[in-house]
Amino acid sequence: MILPVIAYGDPILRKVCVEIDKDYPDLAELIENMKETMTNAQGLGLAAPQVNKAIRLFIVDTSPFASDEELDDEQRASLTNFKKVFINAEILKEEGDEWAFNEGCLSIPDIREDVFRQEKITIEYVDENFEKHTEVLDGLAARVVQHEYDHTEGILFTDKISSLKKRLIKKKLENISKGKVDIDYRMKFPLLKKNKL
Ligand SMILES: [Zn+2]
């Protein structure tokens, strides 16, 4: 089932999410629904707070990069197969130089900005079967995971841009909260005024 994506301005996107255990109700179904929702919206990742659950869960699927002509064959191949579920993730280490990548977010449609992040991370998490992993990621895989991980900490990519750019997009962000934006997937807007009968 495709779930509505929570839009910028909703307080759930600002919550520090809580850890879950195996007994979290209907977890497998939630993960399936999140995958469907992400694919339908052509997203590279989706975090639980974006579908109204303040829990430490996010999914990534970088396969859309497989057709990116700016990448070499090896990079494309590794990104095609990078589809994962991250539960109770913790970034243990971030290292390397900061580099800029033009990020977007399904909760913040029509806005893209260059965001600087470090190139390499070490992350510990459990997968959908609650098996524990520790992985080192770099490049675009690390980038997508850093963005989604931030969601579970209540952080959005627009927090990481210059104050000048923040001022320039302020009105656009307000419009997103009010539902004044063109999108082709389901969303829930915090400030959308319902028509009174
Ligand atoms: Zn996002």
Explain the overall architecture:
- The structure is a single chain.
- With 197 residues, the chain is an alpha+beta fold.
- The protein has 4 helices and 7 strands; from the N terminus they run βαββαβββααβ.
- It has helices at 27-40, 73-80, 139-152, 163-177, and strands at 5-6, 45-47, 57-61, 83-103, 113-126, 132-138, 187-188.
- Strands 2-3-4-5-6 form a 5-stranded antiparallel β-sheet, with helices on both faces.
- A hairpin with a 5-residue loop joins β5 and β6 (132-138).
- The radius of gyration is 17 Å and the shape is globular.
- It starts with a strand and ends in a 9-residue tail after the last strand.
- The relative contact order is 0.21.
- Bound molecules: zinc ion (ZN).
Observed structural traits:
alpha+beta, two-stranded parallel sheet, 7 strands, 197 residues, single chain, 27% strand, five-stranded antiparallel beta sheet
